[in-house]
Amino acid sequence: MKRRHRDAKVDEVSASTAAGLSEPIDAPFGQRGSKDAETWLFDSDLEAVHEAATQVREFCADLGFGDVEIARIELCVYEAFVNAVEHAYGNRPGHEVRIMVDVDAARLRVRVCQRGVPLDAGLIAQTPTGFDDLPSGLDALDCESRGRGIRIIKAIMSSCRVEADGDYACLSMTTPRPETQS
Asked: Are 35 and 16 in contact (CB under 8 A)?
């Protein structure tokens, strides 16, 4: 795995960086090594999604999230990462997917960012939460098989929206932080 620093050229991320980075880089909203914010770079390869989810899983475990909550957050990272690879980069490796997490007293925010085809903020905002409006039974076979990732994210996370971070388009997802036991 290759490590990239924040000031490194993003265009130098190569297709050989299939699994992502072993250490975080500087986050624009936190200090390197901070418990409150981390950023990781990954290649736009579907195999890298496992490392991305693992990084977020470890971050959430350190915050005190329970196993069920961590699994839900991890699922959202998978869905957003796969969407970035498939829709922003057309399943082509050699591009950057940036995962940024930050936390404050009330919430965790996870952002999956890319510089490929821009996210459609209107489409994401209009995507319904949940699956009650989809056909069931045999009628489901005629239903469009795409577009369920955002529904999953919206059903799990308390918010899901598009944000810009410089020349990156980010899918930003938030969820309440677990209450600390006193």
From this structure: no
